[in-house]
Design brief:
There is one protein chain. The protein is mainly alpha-helical. It contains 4 helices and no strands. The longest helix has 70 residues.
Length: 143
């Protein structure tokens, strides 16, 4: 079965032919659209019934008022344990992950280095033994 490469259909026209606008015209249309949306928003607020505006004003007044010392203390008392627990859990997870990664790196380093270390030590001992045997055969004292 032969694989056919995808090709464009003959009925497809170039992008420039399908969209006759330049980038400058597109940006101008986008800025006009954004400005039109900004103008419509205040008009929709004015067109709303008076009952909705009366409900919105007390909520806005409550949002703008400052917290009293008692409210601040109560919020701190409530939020401190929650935040402390969340931070401790995040730090604990980070520490566990870091320690696990470090342990895995150390294990892999040991695994990679054990075989060459054993091989070097064995070669050194064998060469020393062979050298000492050769020296003993010649009658020399190995040092």
């Amino acid at each position: 079965m032969e694989r056919k490469e995808p090709v464009m259909a003959p009925s497809v026209s170039a992008l420039e032919e399908r969209i006759p606008l330049t980038w400058r015209e597109v940006n101008e249309l986008a800025s006009v659209s954004t400005q039109a949306n900004a103008v419509e928003k205040p008009e929709s607020a004015v067109a709303s019934p008076a009952g909705d505006a009366a409900l919105a004003e007390p909520a806005a007044a409550e949002a703008n008022r400052a917290l009293t010392d008692e409210e601040i203390a109560a919020l701190c008392d409530h939020l401190t344990p929650v935040l402390e627990k969340t931070i401790r859990e995040a730090l604990s997870q980070t520490l566990e992950m870091t320690l696990h990664n470090a342990l895995m790196r150390v294990r892999s380093d040991l695994d990679r280095s054990i075989q060459p270390m054993i091989r070097q030590a064995l070669e050194r001992e064998l060469r020393a033994e062979i050298l000492s045997r050769a020296l003993m055969r010649k009658g020399e004292d190995p040092q």
